[in-house]
Amino acid sequence: MQQKPKTLKFLLTALFSTLLTTILIGCGQQKTEDAGYLNKTYPSEAGGTLVDALSGEPSGLIAMMAGESSASAIASNIFNSLLKYDKNLELTGELAQSWDVSSDQKTITFHLKPNLKWADGQPLTSEDVLFTWKTVTDDKTRSPYGADYKLVKSAEAPDSNTFKVTYAQPYAPALDSWSGLHILPKHLLKDQDINNTPFSRNPVGSHYYQLDQWKKGESLSLKRNPNTTQGQAKIDHLVSRIIPDRAAQFLELMADNIDSMSLNSIQYARIFPSRPDLTAKIAQYKELGNSYTYLGFNLKHRPFDDVRVRQAINYAIDKQEIIDGVLLGLGLPVASPYKPGTRWSNPKLQPYPYDPHKAIALLKEAGFEDHDHDGILDRDGQPLSFEILTNQNKEREMSAVLVQRRLKEIGIDVKIRVVEWATFISRFIKTGDFNVVLLGWGLGLEPDQFNIWHSSQQAPGQFNFIGYNNPKVDKLLEAGRLELNPDKRMKIYHEFSEILLEDSPVVYLFAGYGLPAIHKRVKGIDDPAPPAGIGHNSYEWYIPTPLRRNEMSAE
Amino acid sequence: MLKYLLNRLFWMVPLLVGISLISFLIMHLAPGDITATEASFNPKTSEESRQKLRELYNLDKPVIVQYGLWLKRMSTLDFGHSFASHQSPVFWQETDKDGNVTKGMIQEALPITLLINVLSLSLIIAIALPLGVISALTQNKLPDRSITIFVFIGFAIPSFWLALMLMYWTGVSHNWLPISGLHSLGAEKLSSLAQILDTLKHLTLPILISGLTGLAGISLFVRNGMLDVLHQDYITTARAKGLPENTVVYKHALRNALLPLITIFGLSIPGLIGGSVIAESIFAIPGMGKLFYDAVLMRDFPVIMGILTIGSALTLVGNLLADLAYAWADPRVRKGVAQ
Amino acid sequence: MNAILKNPLALTGLIIIGIISIMAIFAPLIAPFDPDAINVKNILLPPSSSHLMGTDGLGRDVYSRMLFGARISLLVGIVAVGIATIIGIVLGAIAGFYRGWIDTIIMRLVDIMLSIPTFFLILAVIAFLTPSIWNIMIVIGLTSWMGVTRLVRAEFLSLRNREFVLASQTLGAKDSRLIFRQLLPNSLTPIIVSSVLGIASAVLVESGLSFLGLGVQAPQASWGNILTDGKEYIEFAWWLSLFPGLAILITVMGYNLLGEGLRDALDPRTSNNN
To answer: What are phi and psi of A158, to 5 degrees?
Structure first.
C-alpha cells in the first residue's frame, strides 16, 4: 500500500509529460538540410519510383464504368484512346496515326498506327476499337457515358488498321469524344460481363504502364509496360497511395513519404513561403485549372427572370476580392465558359466590373428599392432575399460568404446553405427547388455546351437545371454541333459566349489554378506549365539515381 | 443453462429483423441514390442512362418490395453486391466461372478493424486495470484525483486533433513512426518478421489514440467496482479475519470487481466491429469505419445495409457470449440462470 | 448541492461549465468582432492583442467565432441530451412501471439500438438528411436514449416494490400520480448524472461529424468546424486548431468531472469514504 503512490507518481508524470509535449508541438523544431544537391542538373535516365496520393480508391480501372476521378487518373496511364490533346491542347493521334473526315462531314475514318500491341503481347487492331464502341453503346452496359457514342449510326473495321464511324448528321464534338474513350482489349473481354469483370481490377492496356499490384484500400502500383508503342516512360514505377484525409496527405508530403500532391492556396501561398525546408526540397507548379466556379440563378423563379436583377448581382460581386480572399490570388476571372487563352475563349469579353452603384441603379430600374427602410430592397412588398445553395467544398463555402457580404451591402438579404453532394443533386437540383446555386462546371476542351445551355435540356436530371432559354443561343449551339471547320466553329462559340455574358444567367466567379507540388528529385517537368498542364509529358519525367528514395527493397 | 441459451437464440431472430428494418428505413429516409454521386454530375452522362441504372438495381420498385427482396436474399446470407464498387460482393468472396476470386468487402475490412480494436482494447485493459485499482485504493486522494483527470483528458480530447498532432510530431518533426497507411512501400519484400514489425509501427498511433479515448470508461468502471466490493461484508469479514491487505485486495476484491467487466466487453463489441470512421480516415486504414463512410457518401445501399446488419448480428452473438462467460465465471449467476 | 461543493472534482467541473456557459450566453457582449466579418487583408494572422486567438482563412476573428461557436456546440449537446433524456424517461417509465409485454417490446428495442454501432447510425442519418444543426441535435438525441431508458426502468423496478409506493397504491393513487410524484423524483439522481455525461459525448460527436464534413455547416461557427478548418494547417496556423481543440477538451472535461463527481457524491456506496 505504501509504495503505490510512488509508482503512480512516476506513471502519471510520464503520461502527463507525453501529453503536454504533444500539445506543445506547435514549436517543434524544423530540420533544414542542405538541399543543394537537389537543384543540380542530372542526365535523364530510366528507373525509380514516383509516389503520389489519391483521396479515394477507384472502384475499377475501366474508366467508362467507374467514372470517379481517381479511376480515370490511374486508367489514363494504362489505356490509350484513339486521339489525345497535345501540350497546346490541340487534338492529335494517340492510337490513331491520322484521321479523315468525309466531305459530307458525317464519316470519320481513323487510321491506326502500325504494329500496336497490348501489354500481354497480343496485337491491338481496329477490331478492339469496334469492340469498345459496341461495349460502350450496349444497353446492358451500366455506363453513364454512352450518349456521345450512340450518335454513331454505323461503325466498322474494314481492315485491321482502319476504323470508320458514320454519324446520322455531322457531329462536331465527335473527335473530342474519341479522345475520351479508352480502347479495351477484345480478346480478354469478349466473353465477359463488362459490368462485373475481374478485368477491371486486373486490366491489360496499351499505354506506358501496366498494373503491378493493387492493395485494396492501401495503394495501387503501376510498372512500365515494355510492349507500349507510345514510347517508353522513364520512371519505372508509379505508386498511388490511398490517403483520404488531405491533412494527412500534406504531412506525408512534408515527411517525404509521397512525391507529389496538389496543394490548396493556403499551402501554396502561405505555408510554403514560410518554410524554407519545404521549398528546398519540393517544387511548386501552377497550371490552368479545369473548372470554373459560378453563381447560377434559377431563371424560372422571380426575380431572376429579370435580366436587370441578374446583371445587378453580377455588378455587385467583387470577383477579384473572391480570387484574392479565397484563392489568395491563385485564380483568374473568366468571362466565358472556356479556358482563358484557348481558341474558344473570346478575348474581347471582359467580366462585369465591381460596380455597386450600377447594381443599385439596375435594381431600381427593375423596381427594387428599400421602401420600408429595413435595409433590404423590396418590390411590391416582397423583400429581395434568397438562399445560395452549395455543396461541401471549402472554396465554394468561402466564396458564398464573400458574395453574401457584398450583396448585403447593396441591400440584398442572402442566406447560405451547404449540403452534402448526393442530397444536393437529388433534393435540390433535380427538383429545381433552389433559388441560386454556387457550383462549378468543367472548362472542357470541346466547345460544345449543348447539354448545359440549350433550352431542350431542362428535364429533371438534365444539366440546364437553371432553366436557361434563349432561342439565339439555342441556334448557335445547334450550329456549333454541325460545324467541323475550326475557324467557323470559333466564331459561333465566340458569339455564344458574348450573348451568355450579356444575359448573365450565371455570374462567373473565378477559374482557380491547379497547384501541384512535386519533390525536386523528379526532373524533366515543364515550368512554367504549358496550357495542357505539367502532366502532358509525365512519361519524360525522370528521377536521377542519386536522388531516389531509400526504399526498403532494392529494385 | 440450455434453456437459457435457446431462449436467447430465439430472441435474436426478431432482433435481427428489427435491425434490418431500422437500417432499411433509414436508408429510404433519404433523397439521393447511387445515380446521384459525383461521377454522375457530368454533362456526358444522360438521364436515360441513369434511369437504366436505377432499373438494374431495382431502385424504381416500391420500398416495401425492395425490402422484401433484400430480406429474402439476406436469409441465405447473400448480402448482394456493391453498387458503387464495381459489383464487389458485400460480405464474402465469390468465385466466377473462370475461377477468379473476388474478395468480399466486409471480409477484407473486418480483420483489419478487429486487429486494431483488439490491440487497443488490450492496451486499455493493461493500463486501466492498475489505474482503476490505484484510484480505488486512494479514493479521493491525490493519486485518485490525478488519475481521474488524466483519463478524462484522454476521453475529452478530440481524437482527430490529437491524431494529427501526433502524426506531425512523430512523423514529420521526428522520423519515428510512419504517418499513415498499413505498410511501408515495398514491405512485401521484407522478411515476415520485419513485415509484422512494419505493420505494428503503422498501427502504433491509431492504437494509442483509440486506447487513450477508451481509458476513462474502463478505469472508472474498475475503480467504482472495487469501491463497491471493498465495502461489502465479506471483505470486512476477510479483513477481520486478519488476512493480509494484499490478499484481501487482489484475491478477493479485485476478482469480484472484475466480473462485471465481461459485460462491458460485450457492450464494446459494436465498436470493435464498427471501428472508428475518424481514425480510419485520418490514418488511411481500410477498415470497417472507412468502408461504411464511403458507402454512405456513395449511397451504396447494399454495403450500408450489409455492414449494419452483419455488424449488429455479430454484436448480438458477442453479447450472448459475454453473458455466457459471465454466467460461467460467476457461480451466483450460474445457478440463477436456469430459473 | 452540498455534496458537489465538497467534491473538488465536481466543483471544478461546475466552475468550468459555469464560465463557459456565461461566455456563450454573453457572446455578443464579449466578442470584440462580428464573428462573420470577413477581412480578406487579415487572413491567418497569428494571435495578437487585437485578435486574441488570431484570424482564420477569411480573416475572421477566431476569438469571436469561438465565443459564438460555444453557443452552437453547447446547444447541440444540451438539446440532444434533452431529447434523449425525455425519450429515455418516457420509455423507461412505461417499461418499469407496467412491465409485462410492453416492457419486453421496449427492452428489445433497446437491445436493437444498442447492437447497431451508434456512430454509424448517426452518420447514415445525418448524411441522408441535410446536416443542419437541428438535424444533428435530433439525430444524436434519437440514437442515445437507450442508457437512460435502462436506468429509469431499473430504478422503477426497484422502487416500485418499496413500502411508500405500495402504500400510496393501496390508498388508490393514480398511475400518473405515482409515476410523477413518487417514482420519478426518486430516480432523478442517476438520470441527472447520465445527462451530464451525455452532454460531454454529444459535444465530441459534433466535432467528429464536423471532421467528416457532416457537422454544423459553414458559415455558422461551431467548435467542431473551426477545429476542422484548422486541421490542414495544424503546425502552420496552429491557433486555428489549438483554441477550439482546447475548448472542446476543457468543456468535455468539465461535464465529465461534474457527472462523475455527482455520481460519486450522491452514491451512498462510494461516498462513505474511510
So the answer is: -60, -35
A284 Cα to chain C: minimum distance (Å): 18
Task: Annotate A445-509 with DSSP letters as a single string.
Answer: SS---HHHH-TT--STTSS-TT----HHHHHHHHHHHH---HHHHHHHHHHHHHHHHHH-SEEEE
Answer whether C135 touches B (CB < 8 Å).
no
Q: Which residue do the cell numbers 435502462 mark?
A: C150
Residue A21 has what pLDDT?
A: 55
| Residues C191/C108, Cβ–Cβ less than 8 Å | no
A392 near C CB under 8 A:
yes
Q: What pLDDT score was predicted for residue A10? A: 53
> What predicted TM-score, i.e. pTM, was given to this entire model?
0.85
Minimum distance, in Å, between the CA of residue C20 and any CA atom of chain A: 21
Report d(CA B158, CA C252) in Å as an integer: 10
**Given B41, B84, B109, which is nearest A59 (Cβ)?**
B84
Portion 335-354 of A in contact with B at CB < 8 A: none
Instruction: Compare all CA atoms of chain A with the CA of C239 and give the residue at the minimum distance.
Output: A26
Place of cell 483489419: B112
Q: Respond yes or no on whether the N-terminal peptide bond of residue A276 is cis (omega within 30° of 0).
A: no
A25 close contact with C: CB closer than 8 A: yes
Counts of helices then strands in chain B (DSSP H, E): 15, 2
8-state DSSP, A3 = S
Residue A533 grid cell: 498542364
Position A196 scores a pLDDT of: 77
d(CA A254, CA A267) in angstroms, rounded, equals 11
Cα–Cα nearest to B330, from B199, B229, B237, B244: B229
Q: Report the pLDDT value the prediction gives residue B87, as an integer from 0 to 100.
A: 65
**Domains of chain A as residue ranges with CATH:** 9-55+208-286+516-554 (3.40.190.10), 63-201 (3.90.76.10), 289-513 (3.10.105.10)
Q: Determine whether the interchain pair A460/B47 forms a contact, defined as Cβ–Cβ distance below 8 Å.
A: yes
**Number of neighbouring beta carbons within 10 Å of residue A277:** 13
* Measured distance CA(B102)–CA(A196) in Å, rounded: 10
Contact in structure between A297 and A466 (CB atoms under 8 Å)? yes
Give the helix/strand (H/E) hosting B63: helix B63-74
What phi and psi values does residue A459 have, to the nearest 5 degrees? -65, 155
Dist CA A206 CA A201 (whole Å): 16
**Which residue type, as a one-letter code, is found at position A123?**
P
For residue C161, what are the contacts with CB-CB under 8 A and spacing of at least 6? Answer: none
Q: How far apart are CA A529 and CA B4, in angstroms?
A: 73
| pLDDT at position A15 over 70 | no
> Residue A268 — pLDDT band, cuts 50, 70, 90?
very high
Nearest to B29 among C9, C125, C224 (CB): C125
What ranges in A79-144 are assigned the alpha helix state H? 126-137
A417 touches chain C (CB under 8 A): yes
Element (H, E) at B279: helix B277-282
Q: Give the separation between CA A253 and CA A261, rounded to whole angstroms.
A: 7
Alpha-carbon span A174 to A484, nearest angstrom: 9
Maximum Cα interatomic distance, chain A, rounded to a whole number of Å: 101
Residue B336: how many other CB atoms lie within 10 Å = 11
The ipTM (two decimal places) reads: 0.84
Three-state secondary structure call for residue B30:
coil
Is residue B171 predicted with pLDDT exceeding 60? Answer: yes
pLDDT in tens, C134-175: 888 998 999 889 989 998 898 888 887 777 777 777 777 777
pLDDT at A428 over 70: yes
Contacts of C242 in chain A (CB under 8 A): 23, 26
Q: Which residue is associated with the grid cell 444536393?
A: A424
Cβ <8 Å between A420 and C130: yes
